[in-house]
Amino acid sequence: MVHASLSGTGAAPETVRDALLDALGPGGTLVVPAFTPENSDTSRAHRQLTEGLDEREVLAFRATMPPYDPDTTPCPTMGALAECVRTTPGAVRSAHPQTSLAGLGPRAPELLDGHHPHCHLGERSPLARLYEADARILLLRVGFEVCSALHLAEYRTTPPPPRRTYRCVVDKQGNWVECEDAALDDSDFEAVGERLPSHLLMRREWSGRPVTQFRMRPVVDDAVRQMSRRT
Prior knowledge:
- There is one protein chain.
- By secondary structure, the chain is an alpha+beta fold.
- It contains 9 helices and 9 strands.
- The chain is globular and about 55 Å long.
- Helix content is 32%, strand content 19%.
- α1 (13-24) crosses α4 and α7 packs across α9.
- The strands form 3 sheets. The protein has a 4-stranded mixed β-sheet with strand order 1-5-9-8. Strands 2-4-3 form a 3-stranded antiparallel β-sheet. A two-stranded antiparallel sheet has the order 6-7.
- Belongs to the antibiotic N-acetyltransferase family.
- This is AAC(3) family N-acetyltransferase.
- One of its GO terms (biological process) is response to antibiotic.
- GO terms for molecular function: N-acetyltransferase activity.
């Protein structure tokens, strides 16, 4: 799974996508986050979009929010590479209306199928299947603060994380659904990454910013240990 920032590199997302697919080979599968936090009235993204609006304007904005469609809903906050992968012919996308993943390759249907609508990034999400597959994570010019694999660790902490209510619009405009799930908190992800054993990480640099590659399973396991102590 790849998180990437291509800003300032001069590289086209299609070029980076093709280079990653070439590196993976015909048997490899490229997965990216295709999150849509805008499709919610309980997210930071929604609060930013409605900042400065009065109550009537917020209600009007909410009433016109389009429903999530895995085939057409863009993922603008995930970066150019993620949107490029999502829109590539043959790409597969998971069904969650807020935290979908998109993929290209022979295992994409298997890895991204069955994303339960009441589980953002836990045991009933593609992250759990990527963990079982011992996937590799590539942070391409970004840091651990955006490493979504660490959310799986949140679900596995002892004690378990608190829960909260989420709302999003699905199927048709105005059809709001509500669910309860773990209260996801990425505020300490950067610190968790800094405390990871160095032997788990392969570090390089590209266009003036760090590149980090690692196996998902041992990093998630170490993050579980760290996060279980944070309370």
